[in-house]
Structures are given as structure tokens and as C-alpha cells.
Specification:
CATH architecture of the largest domain: Beta Barrel
Low-confidence stretches: 5-32
Mean pLDDT: 83
CATH topology of the largest domain: OB fold (Dihydrolipoamide Acetyltransferase, E2P)
Number of strands: 26
Helix content: under 10%
CATH class of the largest domain: Mainly Beta
Strand content: over 45%
Shape: elongated
Radius of gyration: 27 Å
């Protein structure tokens, strides 16, 4: 039993919340050395992409009042259900379901990674799922026939049945068509045989009704078009993404090598690697980005989050390395990185650009740039940017500490 499973109580396992509304919506990526915290939340499913793992969903916390939408990465190995008979198969999930998610949230990106998910709207004691294609509709008898794996299932529609043919919600039986791909939830132990609690149309021919538009993906930045008012666009090339599979009808973003346009505005969260908000001004073509965005009908992606993995702010002073050159006329210091420092493991050279506001410290005293000599080892606190060639540039430098033998 995993740690996530152990954290559930018997009362939690037996809780059932029936949610039948389908609401409009507002994955991902393993992070290195970023701050995370445990998550234990109840939320309403807004977007469901592929049901093959790994996948991404959007889940809304507190949908009845002020709410927050979370992008939830569901990796291979996630546990579904915690007691005998509860398989909680994602094939049976429907938008609007209530989910109980245990996992962790990356505090820099806001992305939640699941360890365990229980679909409380799909309690196996009360419901069973049925997926398939409509082969017959009888409005006078209030029945719909659904075929799945060669077997015909006659489903009864009653006053208890909620039907959705997006954007029609609630829909009527007459809104469905032969050959519609549907997902149905059947009430167990009902006095009416195969009584449907909810019927949702997923697809009609090539048209997908419930498109999962929000995805997280990795990409390389190729061009920046900034409007100077907090809005603009980024042209990016998609890198290999396990969530963006070729042939997946729910993959609206693209596959490795595709070039797409990512738009951003004042509501987009833009961050550095290893915590810290930033702006597009710090981006450089060739940077590796992690984007969480929503696909638009015009083919662009509206970014909710853009993280530049090539830049990061140091929260504390770091041991930069040995000074090899000082140019006080241009306020730059060239440094060879110290071996064994994980922060500079991929760095061939460090260039520190300081300003008149930068503080210099040595032996606990405030000193000046003139107190730095070649061969000194320095600590630098500032904003770092790693180029493709291995040059680490540190600017917006707050402080530089000069190491002495006593340190």
C-alpha cells in the first residue's frame, strides 16, 4: 500500500457526492529542486483529455463559489480507488464528477501531480459505467441503445436522467443522433432496468464535443513578440512530450517538432526555474520553456503559465567560482565555476554583471569592487541565465561575497 493510500480514512472512502452538471473550464512535467507541498483536495472535473496514462486533467476546487482551476498531471503509477470493487477506471469518468486527489503541488508552477485519485461520483456501490456508440433511439419508449464491443445495451431514460450534448445542457433524447459516441452512468439496483443517471455525448463523427484544451508541454523558444504592455506572443517548437501523443484525438496542441504560437497577457504567470516570478524581458531565443496553456480554435495557445528553465533567481548567495578577469569599466567579472557545485554543473564560464547598487562583502565588512582580485572565489546573489553554449550570466546582482581563507 502506498503512502497516499494510507492517508485515506474509511469515512473518506465511502463518501459519495453526485455531481451532474458539466461546467466550462478555465500536466506535466517533473521539476527539479523546486518547492512542493502536499495536496489533499476535493474538486470538480472540468477537462478530461486522454484516459491513457500519463494524462492531464483540469479540476476546479469549490465550484459552487469562488473557485480555482488546477492543472493536474496524472502520471503512470497513480493509484485509482482504495477499497475492493472501486476500480475508478478513467474510462468511466465524466466531466462534472467530484474527485478526491492526493499528491503534491509545485509552488512555482502551480501544477498538481497526483499520487491517488478517487472519483466520488463513480462509487461502484451505486453506479456502473457504459461507453459506446448509439445504434438506436426510441423517443416514445424513452430508450437509447448503445453498442460496446459487439454487445447491444438498451438504456432507459427517466426523469432522473441528466443528458448533455455540448453545448446543450441539459439536453433531450432528441438531441442525440445515431453513431454518437457517448458515456453513460447506470444506476445500480434501480427499479428500472439499466436506468441512466447521466448520458454525455463525447463525439459525433469527426467532431469532438468535450475537447481537453488545457495541456502542459515542453518547448524551445524561437521568437518573441512583446507588445510592451504585458501582452505578446512566443513562437515555440514543441519538444518531446509524453502527454502529446501522435494519433491521440484529444491532443490539440501538436507533437515534437511542430511550431506553435503561445500568447500571454497580464493574467499569465511567468516564472524562472527554481522559483521566482519574472518577465519576458529576461527570455532569450533558444531557452527551454515549460508551458501550461489552453488551445484556441485559431491554433494558438493561451498561456496560463510560462516557466523559463534557463533562468533562475538565487534565493541565497551561491559559491560562484574563481575570478579570472575583472573589468571595472564595464562592471563585469569573469569567473571559472567551482567543481562540484550542482547549480553550475553545466556551466563552462560565469559572467557577473554588477551595478552601482551591488554590495560587496569581505570578512564581514562592506568593501568595493577594487577589493576583488584574480584568483578570489566569490559568492553571487542575483538572476542567472544559462546560454546554450554554457555561459552563465548573472545580472540584477544584489550582493557579491569575497571568500577568504577563514570562510
Amino acid at each position: 500500500m502506498t503512502n497516499a493510500l494510507k492517508r485515506f480514512s474509511v469515512g473518506t472512502l465511502l463518501a459519495v457526492t453526485a455531481v451532474v452538471g458539466v461546467m466550462p473550464a478555465a500536466p506535466v512535467h517533473a521539476e527539479e529542486a523546486e518547492t512542493t507541498e502536499s495536496v489533499d483536495m476535493w474538486c470538480q472535473l472540468q477537462e478530461l483529455s486522454s484516459t491513457s496514462l500519463p494524462t492531464t486533467i483540469v479540476c476546479r476546487e469549490n465550484p459552487a463559489g469562488e473557485f480555482t482551476d488546477y492543472t493536474v498531471d496524472i502520471p503512470v503509477g497513480t493509484d485509482f480507488g482504495t477499497f475492493p470493487g472501486n476500480t475508478t477506471s478513467m474510462d468511466d469518468w465524466i466531466t462534472g464528477d467530484t474527485l478526491h486527489i492526493i499528491g503534491s503541488q509545485n509552488l512555482n508552477t502551480g501544477v498538481v501531480t497526483s499520487e491517488l485519485i478517487v472519483n466520488s461520483s463513480m462509487n461502484p456501490l451505486n453506479y456502473r459505467g457504459l461507453n459506446g456508440w448509439i445504434t438506436a433511439i426510441d423517443e416514445s419508449a424513452s430508450t437509447v441503445t448503445v453498442q460496446w464491443e459487439g454487445v447491444e445495451h438498451v438504456v432507459n431514460v427517466t426523469d432522473n436522467t441528466h443528458m448533455v450534448v455540448p453545448p446543450i445542457n441539459p439536453a433531450a433524447l432528441s438531441d442525440f443522433e445515431i453513431n454518437d459516441r457517448v458515456r453513460i452512468r447506470i444506476i445500480k439496483d434501480s427499479d428500472v432496468e439499466n436506468e441512466a443517471r447521466i448520458i454525455v455525448a463525447l463525439r459525433r463523427g469527426p467532431h469532438i464535443y468535450l475537447k481537453a484544451r488545457t495541456r502542459g508541454f515542453a518547448a524551445e523558444l524561437t521568437d518573441i513578440d512583446d507588445n510592451g504592455d504585458g501582452t505578446g506572443s512566443l513562437t515555440v517548437t514543441l519538444l518531446k512530450n509524453e502527454h502529446l501523443r501522435t494519433g491521440d484525438v484529444n491532443n490539440l496542441i501538436g507533437v515534437e517538432g511542430d511550431e506553435i504560437t503561445v500568447t500571454y497577457d497580464t493574467n499569465t504567470r511567468i516564472v524562472r526555474r527554481f522559483n521566482g516570478e519574472t518577465t519576458v524581458d529576461e527570455f532569450v531565443e533558444g531557452d527551454l520553456l515549460f508551458v501550461v496553456g489552453r488551445y484556441n480554435d485559431d491554433g494558438t495557445v493561451s498561456a496560463r503559465l510560462v516557466k523559463d528553465n534557463n533562468i533562475w533567481r538565487l534565493g541565497v548567495a551561491r559559491r560562484g567560482g574563481e575570478v579570472t578577469d575583472i573589468d571595472t569599466s564595464s562592471n563585469t567579472i569573469t569567473v571559472d565555476p567551482v567543481e562540484g557545485d550542482e547549480t553550475t554543473a553545466e556551466v563552462s564560464e560565469i559572467v557577473v554583471s554588477y551595478s552601482d547598487d551591488t554590495e560587496f562583502h569581505k570578512d564581514g565588512e562592506v568593501v568595493t569592487e577594487d577589493d576583488i582580485a584574480e584568483g578570489d572565489v566569490i559568492h553571487v546573489r542575483g538572476t542567472m541565465h544559462l546560454s546554450e553554449g554554457g555561459t552563465l550570466t548573472i545580472d540584477s546582482v544584489i550582493a557579491i561575497g569575497i571568500e577568504t581563507d577563514e570562510e
